[in-house]
Amino acid sequence: MGSSQSTEATERASKSQPKGKVAIIGGGPGGAGVSRALVARGFDVDIFESQDGFGGVWKYTGRGPMYRDLDTNIVAKLMEYKDFPFKGSQGYRDREDVYEYVVEYSKKYTTNVHFNTTIANVLKDENSWRLIDIKGKEYEADFIVLAAGHYNVPFTPEIEGIEEWRKVHPGTVLHSRTFDNPDVFENKKVVVVGNGASGLDVAIQILSVTAPVSVCRRHEAPSDVLFDGENMVLKPELIKVDAQTQTVYYQDGSSDPADVILFCTGYLYEFPFLREFSDGQKYPLLHPRRQRLCNLYERTIYLTDPTLAVVGMDKQIVPMPVSEAQGAVIARVFAKDLTLPPLAEMVELERRAVEVRGDGQSYHNLGYPNDAEWMAKLDEWVDTAPTERGFTAEKWDSEKLDLRKHSSKTKLGEFRHKIDQSNRKRLQK
Questions:
Q1: What pLDDT, in 10s, does the model give residues 338-357?
Q2: I want to staple 370 with a disulfide (CB 3.0 to 4.6 A). Which of 20, 188, 189, 366 is the partner?
Q3: Separation CA 196–CA 228 (nearest Å)
Q4: Residue 215: which of 206, 49, 390 has the closest Cα?
Q5: Which CATH number is 4-153+268-396's, of 3.50.50.60, 2.60.120.260, 3.30.930.10, 3.40.640.10?
Q6: What does the pLDDT read at residue 10?
Q7: Which CATH number does 156-265+409-427 carry?
């Protein structure tokens, strides 16, 4: 990895006359990462951010997916952008540390940011894009990057009886997007649906105020070893609920009483401002069920219009370095340093990927080694560009690859420590 001085010199040297105007929708970690690469390649970049400042999902408001006591699932050394290390510990960091880090990076590598600007509509004219915000103001761009994240529309699976439960017991069917802290669950019977990273973390926090906490899941996972069957109880898939008796039923026929059902089941993808590229299209950007994105080459470039790209839409990845790897590709495709394969070939590649990964939420769940292999593939594609001008993402060395390989196992140890803390806190009350 080169020094920040040499990297910045390379980036400055690659700027000349603007190569066109790029509109990035979303000023969070992904938008900032791709902005760095675009500016370095000489593009005029505008970022449109609905919030009043940088930080994206890491900006804590008490009303969104970022909850009060969240900390990272990945150590800081892996999360860092290229040549921009975290200050202090290279281990797990809390949300405030990450927020401050993202803000500092964003201030350095972004230009022309429009805060408090929500884009309501995006239209493609013959040779350019037109963006219209919710106040009716219009903007023009030659290229569009979608970097608005995927934490806005909660996904809740259809469960028999759940709608009646909502009516009979209002406010007791929740999604992790509304979770802020465990205090409101004190002494309640809580069933958490979903055993991903957020489901586990939320369940462990709730354990500090009540026990037992039940977590139901569809598939086995390495985290199953964390459940002791007494305070943290692992349950099969939730299949039915009965509002009259406040009972939940599992796939194996067992049941539990419940006061609260908390879904930690992820999010849907939604771009309400980009309907013309989704509904009724031969090559839609969004799947009809909204559980995945479609027709993207290398999960990044829209197949039929390479002036449209997305960044940071996959899950179980390391977002900051991924955004820079995607950004390096996007900048070169927009600059025509790189070209796409024939449409039929790209369609076939995605068809094969769907066969392997599934046609729903699982399509975007990469994890190791898939995420590392994908980043390496993006880097290799960048290396084929006929010019060396522009930003290149960091290529993970053996140390970082080893950290990523063992990150899930390392996090299990962190979860065990949190469970012990929650049990002690509850017993001290």
A1: 999 999 999 999 999 999 99
A2: 366
A3: 17
A4: 206
A5: 3.50.50.60
A6: 43
A7: 3.50.50.60
